[in-house]
Design brief:
Two copies of one chain form a homodimer. Chain A has 243 residues and is α/β, with parallel strands linked by helices. Helices cover 30% and strands 26% of the residues of chain A. The longest helix of chain A has 13 residues. In chain A, 53% of the residues are buried. At the A-B interface, helix 1, helix 4, helix 5, strand 6 and strand 7 of A face helix 1, helix 4, helix 5, strand 6 and strand 7 of B.
Chain lengths: 243, 243
Amino acid sequence: MSKLYVVGLGPGSVNGMTGAAKAALEQADVIVGYTVYIDLIRAQVPDKPVLTTPMRQEVERVRLALKTAAEGRTVAMVCSGDAGVYGMSGLCEELSSEYPGVEIQTIPGVSAVLSGAAILGAPLMHDFAVISLSDLLTPWEKIEKRLLAAAEADFVICLYNPASHKRRDHLKRACELVLRFASPKTVCGIARNIGRDGEQTQVLTLEELKDTEVDMFSTVFIGNSETRIINGKMVTPRGYIHE
Amino acid sequence: MSKLYVVGLGPGSVNGMTGAAKAALEQADVIVGYTVYIDLIRAQVPDKPVLTTPMRQEVERVRLALKTAAEGRTVAMVCSGDAGVYGMSGLCEELSSEYPGVEIQTIPGVSAVLSGAAILGAPLMHDFAVISLSDLLTPWEKIEKRLLAAAEADFVICLYNPASHKRRDHLKRACELVLRFASPKTVCGIARNIGRDGEQTQVLTLEELKDTEVDMFSTVFIGNSETRIINGKMVTPRGYIHE
């Protein structure tokens, strides 16, 4: 039985990796990943062979990893954040039946919903929904339905892929949908370049967020009806104080 | 300006900690936390003074941490998983105004929604909602509303605190609500003792989950309409294969 580790590297820097992720890289004979992520960990594995594929070629990359493992080598496939959140671990599991004898183990990492929340303050003290605004693999109608449901039920909402190359108005449209149920004064936050050079946060209202342009390095948070600004940070009270 | 690090330790073992979490423990003069979590990291900080408080005394523990930091010492307050998810970082921010001069920094960790997903397979490849079934700080009506909204909009659902000491039927009631919109055959999963001795997973249908008793060391996942079982694992396809 050969092994494919699907490793989430956490936010930008090596500091965000878990011990388990480091151990998987050390155990691997070969590292597979998109070039940008390989660069992040190159210093950790200076002597390991690396197989890279261009961006967007997810199926090819996963097949390459599975094929290499099926040949008897231990492989670590690396992803930013957590490979289990809109990541490659699902595709690895889906294609694994074509490569019997390869055992897949996902090593979880700190995804942007957690690392972004940490630099913004404490927005996730209450129930939350994570929604990707990318309609590359999901019909926009389904995304709309989820945004409306999350807003109506007063979830804190975290938006992945808030900006796309093709459509520039996804975030604006998402805010308009949420505004059907939420106050324009709802506290929101943007976390950008989390854990990397140029890390930035911005706390603003939902009304302001609607007219704000974000880039693909941003993760967006929309508070629930109780989220407040405390010392410039975005905080959703949990209610302990009033117990 | 003195510093309070609010540190998420990730799942059970030290292996689940990030480099940033380890660094915060090393920089701290004093460690504050609930006894069980201190035990997990004792070997990492053999010589540091430790302040513990009993379980449930969240407000007292946070005040102790803030007061110690206000006296000029660097403090690391430790939590399991991620302190930013139903954790202590919100309360620290809320009470911080009473202790001016203390800077709070949350160090995110791998929360059970991520670590549980990793051992179950890949359930979070699509939009998901995280809901706590504890009605200690949230009215049950609000929890019900969120369960119904998440089910109707076909979110993958992750349930924290699926079992309580007082009420044993929370999970059953949650499943009944989700069943109003989801098929009884919906793929579900239970992750128990994640990253610790006795780690266990179980994959089952929503119908079966409804009549299953879980304990407080369990995190429960309810798939969306597309979640499947692949090689015994719980996998929500993302759609790359059919692009």
